Fold this sequence. Notes:
four-stranded antiparallel β-sheet; globular; 42% strand; mainly beta; disordered C terminus
Amino acid sequence: DFRDDKLVQHFQSNRIIYSIARDFKDRMWFSNGSRLSYLDPSEDRLKHFMVRGQITDILPDDRRNRVWASTAGDNDFIYSYNYETNALDSLETKVKSNFSKKMSLDKYNRLWIGTWGQGVYRSNEDLTGFTEIKLTSRTTEHFSGNYNIILDVHHDQNNVTWLATAHGGIVKLLEGNRFENADKLVTNSDL
């Protein structure tokens, strides 16, 4: 309770909690190593599911009635809690990562996966295939590993995709275009 400076609830873990998300049913989901957990406040109940690999991102998907979890390393599966079956499912994406994967949904309900070292991928609408989005032409002087480490993926209300990269800055993706580096868009030299 922030007003009284008291700890209301605490879930002890000796593992890194990489992700936490509140879903469309008011459940709080969090990663605890290879364990995907949720707290259902209406029942004051904690439930756990095991996956293969360290969970690095959690993404609620209200259109599909699921909560997605991605994992670190070469595991090319993502996992989802299915509210219709109350079970954990896996989906093979063929998307690998040297470390973490970050996910986001665009307005067309396509799932984007940003990887550590392997670039960014986008699914089709029914999640049956993932395609790499090439951020640079392999034939230009702009070819660089700087754009392969994706730390976060965001879609704004205009369906513009923004990527946070480890060494390539912020990248703005427009449907049908290549990309713009955000530092090229800023004209204020004081920033």
